[in-house]
């Protein structure tokens, strides 16, 4: 399968995530088994009362990247635990989340997700352990 075919298939499957894809506006840029990259064009709706990007936006984009990377062409997987470290405020108008599988076992998997903004700054580091729903 070509990269474009993989991307089209991932968009077809995960585009049905109403909250992340439709309501929030996260777009899938790349997807493969154990990997994904997504982006979000920011606007005032993503800001908190202080005018900064809401922490929930960081987590939403990271969780969506994890969902794609851990579920695309694999057994269904759900988040078991997740930890986020905020490194710096977002300065750009677009943020990216890149999820990479570090390890996958019989019942659990472990991913790192890095959030960067359009200036190239790393804004957050997330680790997520997934629980694999084997039949």
What is the number of independent domains?
Answer: 1
Stretches with pLDDT under 50, minimum 5 residues = none
| CATH level-4 homologous superfamily | Hotdog Thioesterase
CATH topology: Thiol Ester Dehydrase, Chain A
Can you count the helices?
3
Give the topology string: H per helix, E per strand.
HHEEHEEEE
| Spatial order of the strands forming the largest sheet | 1-2-4-5-6-3
- What's the CATH C level? Alpha Beta
Total number of beta strands: 6
Shape: globular
Secondary-structure blueprint:
Layout: H1 3-14, H2 18-24, E1 27-32, E2 35-41, H3 55-71, E3 77-86, E4 94-104, E5 108-117, E6 122-132
Antiparallel strand pairs: 1-2, 2-4, 3-6, 4-5, 5-6
Verbal overview:
This protein is α+β, with helices and mostly antiparallel strands. 27% of the residues lie in helices and 41% in strands. It has a single domain (3-132), classed as Thiol Ester Dehydrase, Chain A (Roll). It has helices spanning 3-14, 18-24, 55-71; strands at residues 27-32, 35-41, 77-86, 94-104, 108-117, 122-132. It is globular and about 45 Å long. The two termini are 27 Å apart. The mean pLDDT is 93.
């Amino acid at each position: 399968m070509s990269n474009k075919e993989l991307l089209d298939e991932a968009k077809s499957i995960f585009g049905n995530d109403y909250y992340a894809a439709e309501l929030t506006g996260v777009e899938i840029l790349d997807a493969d088994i154990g990997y994904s990259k997504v982006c979000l064009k920011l606007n005032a709706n993503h800001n908190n009362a202080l005018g900064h990007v809401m922490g929930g936006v960081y987590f939403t984009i990271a969780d969506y990247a994890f969902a794609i990377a851990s579920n695309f062409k694999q057994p269904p997987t759900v988040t078991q635990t997740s930890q986020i470290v905020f490194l710096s405020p977002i300065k750009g108008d677009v943020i990216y989340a890149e999820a990479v599988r570090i390890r996958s076992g019989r019942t659990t998997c472990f991913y790192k997700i890095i959030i960067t903004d359009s200036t190239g700054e790393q804004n957050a580091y997330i680790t997520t352990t997934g629980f694999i729903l084997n039949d």
